[in-house]
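User: Let's play a game. I give you a shape written as tokens, and you guess the letters that built it. Ready? Here's round one.
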């Protein structure tokens, strides 16, 4: 039996990769792991509890908040507050940034941007959902950290990752030195290293896009979809169409099998649907670290300027050669050209 390496052991061992590390980032990642286990417990019994159905409130996006959305948001914020390594949380579920202004946290040097429960509309139908997180070092040195500490470019991330609550629960993350995956072993309550040094295949045969929006896509996106569907044994086409409707699950599958995930601009969503700060940037950092590619159809996601907290962006992310091929089509509408 192989030696079991827990997330905690791995984080400590990898801390040595950072000569000036004093353990804060390690503790922050530990705090996220703890909250993930608590959220996982509730997600796994969602059908049994009076936790299904809308909480009645709506989030900043005007989307009805499932009770589990609210619960997950509260659990991650609480874990980060107690852990003392994070001074500000930017959450999809909250209009404004949340200052963790306890005596310990208010001077902490890290910022966390989080989508606490992505794909939550799938909870009631038992489809995998996920948490996406992104970690920055604050730039403000004197006084309180502020919104501008959150609105940094994706290239400034020090760590990013996701938890997928699926057939098993996995935590996958990067600190800029590769990507590693941990599977939760419920019998010991630990995330254990199960997918060391994850690399996304350079090519794949899966394309993932909501084709129900086809008529609203730019012509270049329509042309790329047709390219995926044309018979050409030399390039293993037609590709397979797979769309779960949960970004974490769709990207996790492609990370393992290869493929491209696309959420383009549409006539009703001229800047795309997915959020730059807590969905596109963390996923782009992670997929690039796994050898993949992530653009908005023209520019690298990680280089995009952040102009507002809940800013949206189109995203083409996955196997490097597939994303490059897609970019040879005119993927953006006139708004972004
Ligand atoms: P659509 C879930 O609501 C989400 O934010 C992502 O997880 C997912 O990829 C996307 O929206 C699905 O959007 O418009 O295809 O239902």
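Assistant: Ready! My guess for every position:
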């Amino acid at each position: 039996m192989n030696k079991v390496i827990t997330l905690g052991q791995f984080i400590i061992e990898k801390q040595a990769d950072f000569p000036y590390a004093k353990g804060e980032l390690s503790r922050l990642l530990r705090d996220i792991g703890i909250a993930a286990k608590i959220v996982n417990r509730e997600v796994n019994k969602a059908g049994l509890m009076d936790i299904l159905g809308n909480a009645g409130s709506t989030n900043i996006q005007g989307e009805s908040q499932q009770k589990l959305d609210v619960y997950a948001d509260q659990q991650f914020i609480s874990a980060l507050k107690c852990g003392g390594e994070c001074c500000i949380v930017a959450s999809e579920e909250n209009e404004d940034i949340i200052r963790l202004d306890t005596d310990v946290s208010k001077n902490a040097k890290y910022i966390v941007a989080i989508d606490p429960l992505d794909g939550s509309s799938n909870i009631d139908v038992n489809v995998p959902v996920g948490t996406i997180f992104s970690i920055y070092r604050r730039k403000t040195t004197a006084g309180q950290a502020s919104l501008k500490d959150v609105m940094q470019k994706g290239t400034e991330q020090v760590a990013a990752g996701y938890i997928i609550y699926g057939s098993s629960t996995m935590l996958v993350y990067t600190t800029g030195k590769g990507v590693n995956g941990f599977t939760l072993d419920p019998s010991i309550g630990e995330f254990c290293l199960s997918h060391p040094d994850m690399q996304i295949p350079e090519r794949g045969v899966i394309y993932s896009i909501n084709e129900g929006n086809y008529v609203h896509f730019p012509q270049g996106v329509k042309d790329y979809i047709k390219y995926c569907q044309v018979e050409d044994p030399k390039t293993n086409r037609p590709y397979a169409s797979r769309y779960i409707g949960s970004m974490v699950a769709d990207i996790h599958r492609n990370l393992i099998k290869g493929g491209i995930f696309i959420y383009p601009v549409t006539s009703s969503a001229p800047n795309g649907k997915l959020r730059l700060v807590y969905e596109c940037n963390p996923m782009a950092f992670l997929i690039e670290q796994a050898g993949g590619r992530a653009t908005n159809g023209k520019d690298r996601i990680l280089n995009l300027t952040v102009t507002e907290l809940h800013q949206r962006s189109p995203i083409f992310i996955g196997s490097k050669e597939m994303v490059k091929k897609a970019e040879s089509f005119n993927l953006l509408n006139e708004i972004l050209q």
